[in-house]
Amino acid sequence: MKLYPNVFLITGGACAFMVDAVGRNKNTHFTCFQHEQSAAMAADAVWRTTGKVGVTMATSGPGATNLITGIACSWFDSIPSIHFTGQVNQSESRENLGAKVRQAGFQETDIVGMVKSITKWAHKVESIDDLVKSLNFGLIESTSGRMGPVLIDIPMNIQKQEVTEAQKKQALQTNRKEIKLYSKSNYELNDFFSDSERPLVIIGAGLALSSGVKETQNWCESSGVPYVATWGSSTYLDRSKYGYQGTIGVYGSRLGNWCVQAADKIVVLGSRLDNRQRTGNPKSFAPFAKILVFDIDKEELKKYKKDKNYRTKRFDLSKSSTLLTQSMGKIDTRKWYLDILEVKKTIVSGFESSVAPGELNPYLATQKIQKKFESNSIVVSDCGANLCWIFQPYQPDSSFLFTAGGNSPMGYSLPAAIGAQISNPKKTVYCFIGDGGLQMNIQELQTVTNYELPIKIIVQNNFGYGIIKQFQDAYFGSRYFATGDGYSQPDFKKIAEAYDISYQKITNETELDSFQFRSKAEIIDLHLPPNSLITPKTEMDRFIHDQFPYPNDNSISLLPYIYPNRPSNLGGTSASTV
Ligand SMILES: Cc1ncc(C[n+]2csc(CCOP(=O)(O)OP(=O)(O)O)c2C)c(N)n1
Ligand SMILES: [Mg+2]
User: Fold this and answer.
1) Is the CB of 434 inside a 6 Å radius of any atom of ligand 1?
2) Hey, which end of the chain has fewer CB within 10 Å, N or C?
3) Of all protein residues, whose CA lies closest to atom 16 belonging to ligand 1?
4) Around Cβ 85, how many Cβ atoms within 10 Å?
């Protein structure tokens, strides 16, 4: 458990002392961003790509509040990160006045109060002693149990104080207090699956973050239990293995979803099964199955209390070896595999995009570009249709692909790619992003240029907010308010020139086939048809395996089991569509 020694920051009056301290310390460095949001997103990416904890610094008020969207990315995906904000001198603070005024010191803002609900721990330090303790506590808190971000707010007068040698030692102390967590081994999986005909394991990001994927995959392969992944975990898997059946959820694969819907026993390892997985109608999810969920977070498990099909176990998945004590070898899954193979044959390849012949298909474009990746590269994907066009057709290879799955803000992938490139200087980093997303953090192109980061930025340019347009097609009579009507974009060639970044445009198959990545930073402007769609996709009130576009009116009949009515009859209300 280590802090990454390069602090991502924007300076300001209230954090100037600590920025100066980082600059003077020969063991630490800093990188200047153009927006604090980006600094926080980049810090999030540091942990995802190195396992070291990313750090930001920001000034009080607007600097601190700008961090929030990035902090939320770490919070929802359980990623450690530490954020230091400067605060006004204690003597100038509101607390000193004895009155509940909005603000006393210039730019004084209660950032701790604001981020309480998106951090594991947020604390305004009261003294230099408290600061030293907070550093240790914050690091432990961020990286233990269900991990997440921490914020430490430091008044200027405390920043100015000197730390003694003894205190320094204490601050750098890395011995981590083990938090005791439920690691009982008792052949749980074997017992649960022993009377199953169609067992399935769902591998979630929680298992991946706990480094348990490899072991679990081995267990599944040797036990004959097929398995599926969420998007968050899929990149950690060896997706070329026999037992792997694909991703699940609203934007999951047809086969993966079919497996969930047909299984009779499902074990879930570290997935919170949110509405991207189960849709807005959780009852329509795995209607034939008894489901056993393992999770470290007891609040996540409370969700299932009222559903008799679910059993739950609070469990630290970093101890998954104790769970997977031996391969099962008890039940015969040959028939189950035959069913799966049969369905695999029936299912259309999946990327039945709406584009006309000769136009660029966003799915095939991903696969072609992927073939040009350097080995062991890092790939970051953004938000919207472009995210689906990466995750859905992604082929097994040596790259590491990630996105901010839970928060999914437009504009994440550019700063995240910067964080990944700075902390992995020897790797090639590819940043995929929509035309809309690029405009959310476009200022960071200057960071790319300033630090000469050779990031390849591929703009999946469909000239609009594609994912929302598809939603408007389905439910708003194709009225493209604020997605086509009102939306605009600059000429990315001119943008590239302004930021002194190399530029290539790809508008057809020939150009796609022949282009080569250059060695320095570049923008590759991939022109896609504005009407490119996300396929497959589960629409409102449908089962997850019953995805658009509908191969025939009876896609449910793909199942060799008698199936309940569509979920609209199951009493659900919330949509899960965008
Ligand atoms: C910061 C932020 N604002 C708004 C949204 C809602 N939203 C999700 S996707 C999207 C459109 C994205 O457009 P673009 O980046 O061009 O991606 P496309 O769907 O066209 O591939 C919007 C507005 C969001 N996720 N994040
Ligand atoms: Mg777009």
Assistant:
1) yes
2) C
3) 436
4) 29
Q: What is the pLDDT of residue 571?
A: 43
Beta bridge partners of 9: 32, 57
How many structural domains comprise the chain? 3
Q: Ligand 1 atom closest to Cα of 410?
A: 26
Residues 136 and 194 in one domain: no
Q: Evaluate whether residue 382 is within a structural domain.
A: yes
Phi, psi of 566 (to 5 degrees): -60, 155
Per the model's pLDDT, the better-predicted residue between 504 and 574 turns out to be 504
> So what's the pLDDT on residue 115?
98
> What confidence score (pLDDT) does residue 326 get?
66
Predicted confidence at residue 280, as pLDDT, reads 87
9 has a pLDDT exceeding 70: yes
List the structure tokens of 278: 């189960």
Residue 53: strand pairing partners: 3
At 550 the pLDDT is 78
Whether the CB-CB separation of 58 and 34 falls below 8 Å is answered with no
Tell me whether residue 539 is in a domain. no
Residue 523 has pLDDT above 80, yes or no: yes
123/85 Cα distance (integer angstroms): 10
| 8-state DSSP, 376 | T
pLDDT(505) > 60: yes
Q: Which candidate, 208, 211, 214, 189, places its Cα nearest to that of 199?
A: 189
Contact at 8 Å (CB) between 171 and 136?
yes
Q: Which domain holds residue 194?
A: 185-346
Atom of ligand 1 nearest to the CA of 411: 1
Q: Whose CA is nearest to atom 4 of ligand 1?
A: 410
Same domain, 277 and 403: no
CA 502 – ligand 2 centroid, Å:
21
The CB of 37 under 6 Å from ligand 1? The reply is no
In a domain, 84, yes or no: yes
Assess whether 361 and 507 both reside in one domain. Answer: yes
pLDDT in tens, 252-276: 999 999 999 999 999 999 999 999 9
Query: What is the residue-averaged pLDDT of the chain?
Result: 91
Give me the phi and psi of 356, to 5 degrees please: -75, 160
320-330: pLDDT as tens digits:
887 887 666 66
Identify which ligand lies nearest to the alpha carbon of 385.
1
pLDDT given for residue 324 in this prediction: 81
Amino acid identity, position 511: E
Tell whether 256 is covered by a domain. Answer: yes
Cα 385 to ligand 2 centre (Å) = 7
Which alpha helices (H) appear in 347-465, and where do they start and end? 362-370, 385-391, 413-423, 435-440, 445-450
